[in-house]
Design goal:
globular, mainly beta, 24-stranded mixed β-sheet
Length: 323
């Protein structure tokens, strides 16, 4: 009888231990979700794990270093400037002003991302564009001074833009330098692509690609009536808008307006001058007079008025071709 009771006690203890062990296993399964289907097989076979998308930018702008000078920040929707501090982040949409101390040197660095660095080496002012949460693009707005950008060479098109009132640089990748000044009679900019590439666009002109060592100087009057472009380093192609011309489909008889462009190669010996005429009625801009000339004074002039094209051909440094 005693042996029977002992056996029953032992069996009961064994059953209780098994139930406890089963509950423990189930509890661990609830705390650690089962791996996704095929994950164990992939790990067993040594298959590579998909790489996470590269993050090029911080959510905010970071003041990286202040070696010389002083930097001040005007945050969005505020009235008071604050002194920038190394390592601190500032919201996009802020305006940054960098100045020297007692006419001393300037050396300040800001970071859009770990490998997206903005360097200021003289008195300058710039802004960043405020964006929606989750937006991946960044825009640097020029206000004055000299700024150097060092962006990843692998930066995809469309992610970084540099803008000014009369032109925009897009699809930046690599290293570039911008010198910008604005006054009551207009603005002037020197745009240099050191490495990598970028695109440049303004009213009535477009440079689809500036490559390494390309440098262009742009001057635009305050009323936007006149723009001059001068090549200072390297060659690049400039597309000039001529307005609209009428094109007729001889099969259907349909007539429609289509854009017309001229393509020029801008080199250090060439300059492009764009005169924007006023319409004789209404005062709006009604035509474009594009004057492409060499430093020697020979020119090819193109005037577009009301869809008609008049060309006065001279010995331009490089002739344009109808696009």
């Amino acid at each position: 009888m005693q042996m029977t009771m002992s056996k029953r006690s032992a069996i009961a203890v064994a059953v209780a231990f098994a139930c406890f062990a089963l509950l423990s296993v189930r509890g661990q399964d609830e705390e650690a979700p089962a791996p996704a289907e095929g994950e164990n097989a992939a790990q067993a076979e040594g298959a590579p794990v998909a790489a996470k998308p590269e993050k090029f930018f911080y959510p905010l702008l970071r003041c990286l270093r202040i070696d010389d000078g002083v930097a001040q920040v005007l945050k969005p929707r505020t009235k008071d400037w604050v002194v920038a501090e190394e390592g601190k982040f500032y919201p996009l949409g802020s305006v940054i002003r960098v100045e020297s101390v007692e006419n001393g040197p300037v050396g300040v660095k800001f970071a859009f991302g770990e490998k997206a660095i903005l360097t200021v080496t003289n008195a300058a002012e710039f802004a960043t564009k405020e964006i929606e949460i989750g937006e991946k693009t960044r825009t640097l707005i020029l206000k004055g001074g000299r700024l150097g950008l060092d962006l990843p060479r692998t930066l995809p098109d469309g992610l970084f833009t540099v803008s000014a009132p009369f032109f925009t640089c897009s699809n930046l990748a690599g290293e570039s330098v911008f010198e910008y000044s604005a006054g009551g009679d207009g603005d002037e900019a020197v745009i240099r692509c050191v490495t990598g590439s970028m695109a440049l666009e303004g009213r009535h002109y477009k440079v689809e690609r500036m490559g390494a060592a390309n440098q262009i100087r742009i001057r635009t009057t305050g009323d936007d009536r006149f723009t001059s472009m001068r090549g200072e380093s390297g060659d690049c192609k400039v597309l000039l808008e001529q307005g609209l011309i009428q094109q007729k489909n001889f099969e259907t008889g349909e007539v429609k307006d289509v854009p017309k462009t001229l393509e020029f190669s801008l080199s250090p010996q060439c300059a492009i001058k764009i005169f924007r005429d006023k319409s004789p009625v209404g005062g709006a801009h009604g035509g474009v007079h594009d004057d492409v000339q060499s430093l020697g004074g020979h020119a090819e002039q193109v005037r577009v008025r009301g869809g008609s094209l008049e060309r006065q051909l001279g010995r331009a440094c490089r002739r344009g071709r109808g696009a």
